[in-house]
Design brief:
six-stranded antiparallel sheet; 24 helices; 21 strands; about 725 residues
C-alpha cells in the first residue's frame, strides 16, 4: 500500500490505514456523493515518523509517569502539551519528507484543509468529534507538512486521552492518518443529523453563513430546522441572531461581520434543506445507521465534508467525564464574555456576600439562631462552589489557549515558557506574601518591632499599616478560618521566621516579562499583532483568577467554618447542647462532611495496605517548576501545621491551597499529590522560582517530616534520603 492514497484507490481492507473519517469519505465518493478532492496520508507514515525520530519512546515516558487510569485531567493537559511540543520541535526526517512531497505534489490543492482521521474514530460506539485537530486554509507544501505533524500530535490531546480512558481504549495502540483536502470555501455550511439524538422520529439540520468552523467551535450560532424523519417535512424552524460569519483569510480563517442583507434571511432555502436531508439519508443507506454529517454549499453544489454514525455511547453518561471536560474548551469570544461576567458581576457579588457574613457576630447568637446560621452559610458556600465550577474553572482555558498560540509562534525549548509571560499578574496570594515579607524586612532591620507585633502595641506607622492591611484583607484566609486573625501569635511567629534570613523575591523582574512579551509579539504584525495583545491580556486575567478564585471562595468557606466552630465549641461546653447534624438537610450535611476533612482515599487501583514500613527512595511525578532543591521535608496535613514551617523546608502536602501559599517564600521546594501545571502549588512555585513536582500518589504517606528530600523540578523526580 502507498503512503498516500486518493479516495478512488481506497479498498475495504485499507480501513485501519486511512482511519474512520477517510474511510467514510472514500465510500461516499465511490457511491456518487460529492466530497472535496482528498489525499490520505496513511497511519504507517505516522508510525514511521514516531519510530525513526525516537518520539515513540518519549511519548511513552510522558504517559508512564503515573498509571494512566489515575491521571487527573490537569495532568492529562500537561502531558498532552509536552507531547504536542515534541511534535512541534521534531523535524520530519529528510527521506520521509521527500517521500511525502513526491506523493502529494501532483495532487496538492492550492488551499488545503488538513484533518485528522484516526482508526476507531467515527464508529457507532465512539465519536472523537472535536477531540482531534483540523487546520483550515493551509497554503504551501511546508505548511502542509507542519500541520500534518500537529494533526498527529492531536492524537494525544488531553480531551482525546480522557475519552480513550472513558472508553477503555489502549492508548499504546493509537495511530493517526491525515486527510489533505481541497478547501471548499462554502457560502453556507452546517451539520445534519439523520436522526435527532433527542427524538428518534426527527432529523435535525443546523446552518450558518460562511465556513463550518464558526458553527463547530461555537463562535457562530446556527439556525435550526427539525424535520419529520420519515418524510423530510419541516416541522419547526428556529432562527438564530445573525451577526457574524467565518471566512478564509490570507492565513487561516477569521470572524467578520455578516453582510446586512443576510442578517434577516435563513442560510438555507426550503429546497436546500431538503437537499441536505436527502444527502444524509443516502449516507445512512450506505453505512446502515443514521449519520451525523458536516456539509457546505459552494455556489449550487452541495459537498459532504465528513460523515459519521450518531454515537450510541460506550459508557453510562452519568459516569462519562468527557462532556464536562469538553465544556472547558472555549473559544476566544466565549472566554472574553465569561471574563466580563466573572470580573464584572460574580467576584463583586462574592466579595459583597463575604462582607455581609463578616458583619454578623455569631458568638453573640442564641443557639437556635446559630443553628440556622450554620445551615444558611453551608448553603451559601455550596452555591458559590457551584459558580466556581461552572464559571471560574472554564475561564482557566484562556491560559491553555494562549499556551498553544505561544508555542506555535515562538517554539521555545520549554513548553511551559509561556507561563513566565503571565507572571506578576496581580495575584492576591502574591500580594499577601509581599505584605508578609515587607513586615519581615522591617523586623529584620528593627528587631524590636517583633515585640510590638506580639503585644499589639505597634508604634511604627509603616508597620502598623502593613499589619492592618494584612488582617483586613487576608486575616480570614490566613489558615482557612478566622481563628488566626483573632490569635495573632501564629502570624507573628511566621514573620519572625521570615525575618531570620534573607528571602528570595519573585523570580522574574518586570523587564524580563516585557522581554518575553516582545519576543512573542514580534512574531506577528498588523491586525494579527493587535489580536495577540488581546489573547495575552485574556491569558493573564485567566492566570490571575486561577489562583484568586480559591481565595474568594475561601472567604465564604471561612465564614461558614467560623459559625460551625462556634457551634461545636458550645456543644463541648454544654453536654445537653442540641446535636446540629439532626437539623441538617442532606445537601447541607454533605457540605459539612466535606469541610470537616475526611481522610484522603488512595487513587483507584492503588493499595498501600501492608506497606507502611516500606521506605520509598525515588518517586516519579510531573515536573511543574524547574530547578533543584534539597532540604528536610515538612509534611503538612492540616493548615495549623504550616506554622511549624522553617526556612529551607520542602513543603509536602496533598494539595497547596491558595490559603497555604504564605509559606512559599520560606520553602526550598514543593511536592504535591495532586498534579498539574495550573494547580495553585505549581503557579506559586513558578512565581518564586522554587522547584516543584506534582502528581505523586500518596506523597504525604511515603514522605515523612524530617526526611532529607531532593526535588528535581526538571525531570519530575523526588529522591528521599
Amino acid at each position: 500500500m502507498n503512503d498516500v492514497l486518493v479516495l478512488k484507490d481506497m479498498r475495504p481492507q485499507d480501513r485501519h490505514a486511512v482511519g474512520g473519517k477517510g474511510f467514510a469519505l472514500a465510500v461516499m465518493a465511490q457511491h456518487g456523493i460529492r466530497v472535496p478532492a482528498t489525499l490520505i496520508v496513511t497511519t504507517k507514515v505516522y508510525e514511521r515518523f514516531i519510530s525513526t525520530t525516537g518520539l515513540k519512546g518519549r511519548i511513552s515516558l510522558e504517559l508512564q509517569r503515573k498509571k494512566f487510569k489515575d491521571l487527573r485531567w490537569e495532568e492529562m493537559w500537561d502531558a498532552s502539551l509536552r507531547i504536542r511540543h515534541l511534535f512541534l520541535n521534531t523535524r520530519m526526517p529528510e527521506d520521509l519528507a521527500a517521500s511525502l512531497q513526491r506523493a502529494l505534489t501532483p495532487h496538492l490543492p492550492e488551499r488545503c484543509v488538513v484533518r485528522s482521521s484516526a482508526p476507531g474514530e467515527d464508529s457507532r460506539q465512539a465519536s472523537f468529534a472535536g477531540l482531534h485537530s483540523s487546520f483550515v486554509n493551509i497554503v504551501g507544501m511546508e505548511s502542509v507538512l507542519d500541520n500534518v505533524k500537529l494533526v498527529w500530535a492531536s492524537l494525544w490531546s488531553d480531551a482525546a486521552l480522557l475519552y480513550r480512558r472513558e472508553l477503555g481504549l489502549d492508548v499504546r495502540k493509537s495511530v493517526m492518518a491525515v486527510l489533505i483536502q481541497d478547501m471548499v470555501a462554502g457560502e453556507k455550511s452546517g451539520v445534519v443529523f439523520g436522526q435527532n439524538p433527542q427524538d428518534a422520529s426527527q432529523g435535525v439540520i443546523e446552518a450558518v453563513y460562511g465556513l463550518n468552523q464558526g458553527l463547530v467551535d461555537g463562535t457562530v450560532e446556527p439556525d435550526q430546522w427539525l424535520l419529520n424523519r420519515a418524510t423530510g417535512e419541516i416541522l419547526t424552524y428556529r432562527p438564530a441572531p445573525k451577526t457574524d460569519i467565518m471566512l478564509p483569510g490570507p492565513e487561516g480563517v477569521h470572524l467578520a461581520a455578516l453582510p446586512l442583507e443576510h442578517t434577516q434571511t435563513p442560510p438555507l432555502t426550503e429546497a436546500e434543506v431538503a437537499q441536505v436531508y436527502q444527502m444524509a439519508r443516502r449516507s445512512e443507506a450506505l453505512f446502515g445507521t443514521p449519520q451525523d454529517m458536516e456539509w457546505t454549499f459552494a455556489g449550487k453544489q452541495l459537498f459532504a465534508l465528513q460523515s459519521r454514525p450518531i454515537t450510541t455511547g460506550g459508557k453510562d453518561k452519568k459516569e462519562d467525564e468527557r462532556p464536562w471536560y469538553l465544556s472547558l474548551r472555549r473559544s476566544f469570544g466565549n472566554l472574553k464574555a465569561l471574563r466580563e461576567k466573572v470580573e464584572g458581576r460574580l467576584i463583586p457579588a462574592m466579595e459583597a456576600e463575604s462582607a455581609r457574613l463578616s458583619a454578623i457576630l455569631v458568638d453573640s447568637m442564641s443557639s437556635a439562631d446559630l443553628e440556622k446560621e450554620v445551615i444558611l452559610r453551608a448553603r451559601v458556600f455550596q452555591q458559590w462552589k457551584k459558580v466556581y465550577w461552572e464559571d471560574f474553572i472554564p475561564l482557566a482555558h484562556g491560559i491553555r489557549l494562549f499556551g498553544i498560540i505561544y508555542n506555535d509562534a515562538v517554539k521555545p525549548s520549554d513548553p511551559f515558557e509561556f507561563l513566565n509571560l503571565l507572571a506578576d499578574s496581580g495575584m492576591l496570594s502574591v500580594k499577601r506574601n509581599r505584605l508578609l515579607t515587607s513586615m519581615a524586612s522591617q523586623v529584620r532591620e528593627q528587631p524590636e518591632f517583633l515585640e510590638e507585633l506580639r503585644t499589639g502595641m505597634i508604634k511604627n506607622p509603616e508597620l502598623q499599616q502593613a499589619w492592618q492591611s494584612f488582617l483586613h484583607e487576608f486575616g480570614d484566609l490566613f489558615c482557612g478560618t478566622s481563628a488566626c486573625a483573632q490569635e495573632p501569635e501564629a502570624l507573628v511567629s511566621l514573620i519572625r521566621e521570615m525575618s531570620a534570613q534573607p528571602l528570595q523575591g519573585e523570580r522574574l523582574a518586570t523587564t524580563d516579562i516585557e522581554s518575553l512579551k516582545e519576543l512573542f509579539l514580534s512574531r506577528f504584525s498588523g491586525p494579527k499583532r493587535a489580536e495577540m495583545v488581546e489573547y495575552l491580556d485574556l491569558a493573564r486575567a485567566s492566570y490571575r483568577l486561577r489562583d484568586d478564585d480559591n481565595l474568594h471562595l475561601g472567604k465564604i468557606k471561612s465564614h461558614f467554618l467560623q459559625a460551625l466552630e462556634e457551634y461545636q465549641q458550645r456543644k463541648e461546653r454544654h453536654q445537653n447542647y442540641p446535636h446540629l447534624s439532626d437539623a441538617f438537610p442532606p445537601d447541607v450535611g454533605a457540605v459539612i462532611q466535606e469541610l470537616e476533612g475526611k481522610p484522603q482515599e488512595p487513587p483507584a487501583g492503588i493499595s498501600w495496605t501492608g506497606f507502611s514500613d516500606l521506605k520509598a527512595r525515588q518517586l516519579v511525578g510531573q515536573p511543574a517548576s524547574a530547578g533543584l532543591a534539597q532540604g528536610p521535608a515538612r509534611v503538612v496535613l492540616e493548615p495549623s501545621e504550616l506554622f511549624h514551617f522553617k526556612a529551607g523546608d520542602i513543603l509536602v502536602c496533598d494539595a497547596v491551597d491558595p490559603s497555604m501559599t504564605f509559606v512559599v517564600p520560606l520553602a526550598a521546594g514543593i511536592v504535591e499529590r495532586r498534579g498539574g501545571m495550573l494547580i495553585h502549588g505549581s503557579i506559586i512555585a513558578r512565581e518564586y522560582g522554587i522547584p516543584c513536582v506534582t502528581g505523586i500518589p500518596q506523597a504525604t504517606s511515603l514522605i515523612h517530616t524530617g526526611d532529607s528530600v531532593t526535588v528535581d523540578g526538571y525531570l519530575g523526580i523526588v529522591i528521599i534520603g
